[in-house]
Amino acid sequence: MEVERVQAIVSSSLAKDNIPLEFVRPEDEQPAITTFHGPIPDIPVIDINHPDQDHIIHLVGNASRDWGIFQVVNHGIPFDLIQKLQQVGKEFFDLPQEEKEVYAKPPGALTLEGYGSKIGEDVNGKKNWADHLFHKIWPASCINHQFWPKNPPSYRAVNEEYAQEVRKVVDKLFKWLSTGLGLEVDVLKQGVGGEEIEYLMKINYYPPCPRPDLTLGVTSHTDLSAMTVLVPNEVPGLQVFKDGHWIDAKYIPGALIIHIGDQIEILSNGKYKAVLHRTTVDKEKTRMSWPVFLEPPGEFVVGPLPQLVDPQLPPKYKPKKFKDYSYCKFHKLPQDKKRSRMEVEGVQAIVSSSLTEDNIPTEFIRPEDEQPAITTFHGPIPDIPVIDFSDPDQDNIIRLIAKASRDWGIFQVVNHGIPLDLIQTLQLVGKQFFNLPPEEKEVYAKPPSAHTIEGYGSKVGEDVNGKKNWSDHLFHRIWPASCINHQFWPQNPPSYRAVNEEYAQEVRKVVDKLFKWLSIGLGLEADVLKEGAGGEEIEYLMKINYYPPCPRPDLTLGVASHTDLSAMTVLVPNEVPGLQVFKDDHWIDAKYIPGALIVHIGDQIEVSSFSSFNAFYYSFSLNILQRVYINL
Ligand SMILES: O=C(O)CCC(=O)C(=O)O
Ligand SMILES: [Fe+2]
């Protein structure tokens, strides 16, 4: 067996209070930090046996608009059938590992069906604390019985019966959802495939986890289905993102949880919302869930319904074959057609051409849990520490730097010795470069598939969820001399080179002091950190970020949240605020201080103070998460 199942990890080797690193989520995803416990309404619960149909339509419509999720009770599926469905699923996962592996998803298979431990690629290389089994249950012509467990023997009959019952509920829901939009009753169902809609059963199996505070069962996502009908077991864990908060779904025995998925959001042109959700796991108990995803056939094209589009409400999504939509979603590609390098437009070019109305390309629109309008904290919180390098008391500077690095991972430095007019000319020559005509900037474009990141470009690496950053950039090394590629240094403006050379010398002096003081602050010899990071061979990589104005700064980010890969980053901003750091569970703004340098502790310092100096394990434990939003 090549892939390790989470269930197998748990039953073998797991130390108490310890989980493999690939399951430990970054702080801004950890449930212990990000779950909301304040007063907030519950996910709507709808009695669908209510005598007044208009009442049901009203509730279903509101829940789908405001929440994208609701629970239904009195849905007509017998309670004992639901219990049998849970029982046979549990019996399958209780089988010996070898017996489950018989149903393993074949490597390289095009379908999702089978037993497995993950789908698609993990963001940041993190794994989900879950195993699963997928198989289609309807229509009959789509069923592959090879993926249906033979054991327990009643597995098949129970799932067949459940398929019939769930179809009846789904038909009612589609009808009500259509009516709720003022459409004929059958429009929504027909719009996602009609009688050819495929019912894909998934069983999620979340074994007990010694550190449920650090990991997730399923990371945050919207379902790519039209709709999902889910039966949970009695162990809570489903969370939905609502009004900027992750909140727990209440367990109601026998209820069905209905998720609006991407295809209904698209079909309704955004009137109904696909719900962003994730799952947490339990320390002692096994959680399980049985979502059925209702999917259009692969070749079926889904796009906004013409009835829901008009000049006031232009189409928000491109019509797309379901198979192309799911391919992009699994591979985290933008949902817009892929473009070749020459067609890739810098963000600056998009802005200066077509962008007039309140309308930005969807690949720049972040999911709600990243949108700055929703997630920026405005309450009372201390500012990022500001440290004055002209303080005659060096010990005090060292104490402040150590404390800021420990508590924040970021600080601002004033009176650092770099002349203000040098900083201003650095800003000016960079601005002059970005003001050149596009053809002239393209001369410095990062060569496609180059090994270096040097050059002019619009994004590094792949974006999570296929989203793009609202920024262009220029990278080039400025030190040591042997590393410099002048091909990536603008010739225009002519003073670009001299100014950057001078800045490199000045910034090195500041960096040397920083390394020395950071070392001493850790109780080390003065040169230990610098030597650990490469000594005289440390490479200084300049990046200029260019964030053009954006008509919807509330929805997009200049740079998505990340920590810097470097040992340390020394940053000069311009006067437009936008840097945010994640501190004590909140995204907070960095204040602009003219002439100050912003110093970030990067991954390499974190690593060296962690691994080489165990005694200082906690010393620089905070590698601050940062992101940049756009200011209009
Ligand atoms: O386990 C749950 O409650 C939700 C699972 C889920 O979101 C999924 O499998 O898509
Ligand atoms: Fe889901």
From TrEMBL:
Q: Which Pfam families match?
A: 2OG-FeII_Oxy, DIOX_N
Q: Does the keyword Protein transport apply?
A: no
Task: Tell me if Membrane is a UniProt keyword of this record.
Answer: no
Domain spans labelled Fe2OG dioxygenase: 196-296, 537-632
**Cited InterPro entries:** DIOX_N, IPNS-like_FE2OG_OXY, IPNS-like_sf, Oxoglu/Fe-dep_dioxygenase_dom, Plant_2OG-oxidoreductases
Alphabetic keyword roster? Iron, Metal-binding
Checking SUPFAM superfamilies in the record gives: Clavaminate synthase-like (SSF51197)
Family the entry assigns: Belongs to the iron/ascorbate-dependent oxidoreductase family.
Q: Which PANTHER family match?
A: OXOGLUTARATE/IRON-DEPENDENT DIOXYGENASE
Name of the featured protein: Fe2OG dioxygenase domain-containing protein
